[in-house]
Amino acid sequence: MVRDERLDEPDAEAVARAAREARGRAVADVTPISKGINAIYRIRFAGGEVAVLKAATFNTTAELRPEPYLLRALADATTLPVPEVLATAEDGGPLGVFHFLLEHREGRQIRDLDGLSWADRERLVRAVGRHLARLHEFRLAEAEGPVAASLDADDCGPLRMTDPEAGATPAFTADGGDSWGEVFASLADHPASLVEQVQCGDDPGRFADLVPDIVAAFDGVADAITEPETPAVLHRDFHLDNFVLGSDEEGGLDVRTVLDFGDPYVGDYRLDLAFAEDATIRVQLPTEDRAADLRHLLRRSYARERGIDPDEIVNGNYPYYLLVQRSRWMSVALDWKSCDDPAAVERAYRSFVRERLAEIE
Hints:
This protein has eleven helices and twelve strands. It is of the alpha+beta class.
């Protein structure tokens, strides 16, 4: 659910007023950040402090409201590295729309994996496994602070919040009350539809022969998906664009900050792990053996942090989760022109899809 029509992005003067009201200090400059689907700005205050303002111009207030409250709860209850929430404007202030201010985290971001050494790729997937596990170990119902949680133990769906009316304690809720299978079927519908329309980069017919089998695999998926043992808070976008990178104590690559909790869900932790696996271990690798090494490393790192058996991660749901994420890449996300060997990438994609389809059958 998003707005029926995207709102115009606020101008720099209005953003400066909003930041000034939120922090009570003069603003030196405002710079739009071309990242994400909502309006985001880098704010530099006169004293040198740097912050980030995010406004609900694409998502509705109900969709975006949980993010700052969730970030505060995660900062209080976990060691997950998330930015500090500096202010939240429920009334919209000078922008007339819900927005919040976060601290700006210094570091570097990368858009692809090609420039990383093998050692840094290993460090990256280990860090991703650890941090994702820390998120999934978090329990909203046990979180302390000014926000309540009106969730049953088996609730699944989009994570939302009650409107914090005057004097009322805001509470997290799971919108919809559907089974996890129904929730996932809804999530899977969009990428599956994109593949059905065969929107595949520079060659509209590139994967046309796979489309009937992909669409058929998701037919009736709500009944095929098993319910999670314990629903977890899901990020749903655990990929390179949402990591601020830095160095660990030995000087190796590390994930310094995890960003963008703008559309959290409650559901099966394996969905997040499958999405992260596909985003941080692409098919553009020298050999499938090396890709398999990274997958095992990611799963072991995740399992070790949570204290679970890595063999329990891949169940009957997992091929569906991997397939829906790869469908998204196949349909719109992959820049084929930037591939060194498009034919090799296409072969790898085809092999991946066929393997997942065989597992689903």
